[in-house]
Amino acid sequence: MSTITEIRDPNVTPPLGQAIPLGFQHVLAMFASNVTPSIIVAGAAGLAFGGEEQVYLIQMAMLFAGIATLFQTVGFGPVGARLPIMQGTSFAFVSVLTAIAATQGLGVALTACLIGGILHFGLGTIIGRLRFLFPPLVSGLVILTIGLYLIPVAIKYSAGGAAQFQMEAESFGSLKHWSVALTVIIVAIGFKFWAKGILSAAAILIGLIAGYLLALVMGMVSFDAVSNAAWITGLKVLPYGFAFDIGAVIAVFLICVVSAIETVGDTSATTKAGAGRDASDEEVAGATYADGLGTAVAAVFGGLPNTSFSQNVGIIGMTGIMSRHVVTIGGLVLIVCGLVPKIGAIIASMPLPVLGGGVVVMFGMVVAAGMNMLTEVEMNRRNMLIIAVSLSVGLGLNLVPTAVQYLPGVLKTMAISGLLPTALIAIVLNQILPEEISEGAAS
């Protein structure tokens, strides 16, 4: 029998004694990132923090991350890369979905996700021809913008911000809140750099547990929702109804294109890290089909869009375990978690400062990932101009939404999303600007 370090074939399964812990490691590495978007979007929609509706959204995040992972690892027909690709709720959609949920409601947001997922599925047939639109300059800007958009949310949570990111007049920014958030950050950093193996991979989750325990000691945790939650859940079809809005669909679909390109990158990175080869066209197309199908199916039951998780690619590179069956075990663990409402209620009982400390690290890492991608770009005058204009307009409109208050509702939602204008401006400028600005033009 080959040793665990020699498994480079996605179809080979390690002994169960090794495969099960490895599968749990994949879950631990992505668990916090997977449930966080649902908590943020629920807050933007005005759902009670820790309430039944928020608990349900958290459950769906776990359940359909697991199901979408099986679409990737097991697959059927053309669907699925049949590679160890872990799926989870995508941060890329948060800026758009929070804007839609806050102004038009979750019904419009989830309907847009359903239709966007179907269109995303269709991208599998042409994804190879769209890759030219997303060189490192554009991809790096998109990822950087996602992180920069979300960092204020992390700070508000850390300081004790309530639902819809409002501030609590008396306790917002108190030492009590910040002591919990900082505990999460310090513990996460400590385990990331001074622990090894699963403990290092699950550093953020361990930090969240430490912060949660401190909050419990300080009397900040209520278990009322946990005690009232059932052990087994029933799924709700279109829990917020079907509410079509063309602007919302367009906005979500544009992010689907970005997500599809991200999945192409993760698929290629997986095969490079695990097998030392490039991903085949069939694997890239299959991964995109699974992405779209996972998003569409999740939306039917109240789940947010799914995408491949880059941090799990790092685990493959670190362990050298290319077995898709290991990640299948991780997907099954998520499905079990999603079917048990008490698990969702425990997560929902997490005080905002605990979550805030975790997302300070997570969102900061998103920013760092975007910056790292931009290091591949030559910082000449042309590329610096694209970065400057894209970020200034995209994030500027998000920070000052009244600047476009006279736009129709749909266009305003898209304009203030932060990510969409940044991505669109970067794509257009990258296509139309000459490779170098002439000396005459510069003078």
Walk me through the structure.
- The protein is an all-alpha fold and 443 residues long.
- The protein is built from 20 helices and 2 strands.
- It has a two-stranded antiparallel ribbon.
What's the layout of helices and strands?
Layout lengths: L15 H29 L7 H22 L13 E3 L4 H11 L1 H17 L4 H4 L5 H23 L16 H20 L2 H5 L1 H15 L6 H5 L17 H30 L5 H20 L5 E3 L1 H10 L4 H15 L2 H8 L3 H23 L6 H19 L9 H7 L3 H14 L6 H4 L1
Antiparallel strand pairs: 1-2
Helix pairs in contact: 1-2, 1-3, 1-9, 1-14, 2-12, 2-14, 2-15, 3-4, 4-11, 4-12, 6-16, 6-17, 6-19, 7-9, 7-16, 9-16, 11-12, 11-13, 11-18, 17-19
What's the short story on this structure?
With 443 residues, the chain is an all-alpha fold.
Q: How are the strands ordered across the major sheet?
A: 1-2
Order of helices and strands: HHEHHHHHHHHHHEHHHHHHHH
Radius of gyration: 21 Å
Mean pLDDT over the residues: 82
Output the keywords.
two-stranded antiparallel sheet, disordered C terminus, 2 strands, 20 helices, 443 residues, mainly alpha
